[in-house]
Amino acid sequence: MKINRILFIIITVFLCSACTANYNLDISDEGYKEKITIKATSQSENELFEKVEEPIYVGSEINNIDPTKKIEGTEYYDSNLTLKDGLSNLTYSHNFKRNKFSKSYAPNTAYETFIFRKYDHDLDGYDDYTMITTTETLYYFENNPELEEIIVNIKNHYKVISSNADYVKGRTYTWHITKDNIKAVNMVYDESETTDKGKITDNYTIAYFLIIIPLLLLFYISYKKFKKYSESKNKIPD
What angle do CA 46, 50, 51 make, to 5 degrees? Predict the structure, then answer.
């Protein structure tokens, strides 16, 4: 049975009209960087926003008496409530290690089923592909009829084998979910291959211009000065 308090979107802004939410996940060798943003769409909604302390891991003890206060021993998302262009922005973020992401509170409480695991795609005895997949049952719209849309962005620095994203821009895969078009999120990728090879080359190019060329220029100037000094010293007086 799912927890009644389904994440912070439902609790913090359940009175808002036309609220939007963005779920962003950045996947790389550095881990899984998760950031959720809830945005007001009009200034009249600003006073309805309240920062609720949300646990990082599913199954954690929840403070139902006062959700704005933390429970000792429970780990929480880093949260921040700010104004951007005069509108409230409520953000929650956390950087997960790979072996911890399957317990992330956000996707586990958003969908009926959330699966994150490696599997053996070619039956050679090695788990080589990684999958992220959910069911189509999304609780946000059921519990919060005023929520208009959820944008899911997954930026993946590994080679993506397949996905059902609505559109792709560079490394970022995006799902546009509305109450009239609820969909599952599916992605399969290969962690043995990265799409950052060009970035590494670019870094070497930058290093070349910032370090190698100035050193060569310094050597050239020193050489010219030494040559000029040698010529003046060996010059025969008239």
Answer: 130
Mean pLDDT check: name the lowest of 47-61, 137-151, 154-168.
137-151
Q: Does 233 have pLDDT greater than 80?
A: no
Spans of all domains in the chain: 7-195, 196-238
Residue 16 has pLDDT above 50, yes or no: no
Mean pLDDT of 23-47: 88
> What does pTM read for this prediction?
0.74
Length of the chain: 238
Mean pLDDT of 93-109: 95
Which are the contacts of 129, defined by CB distance < 8 A and separation ≥ 6? 118, 119, 120, 121, 161, 188, 189, 190
Q: What are phi and psi of 123, to 5 degrees?
A: 55, 40
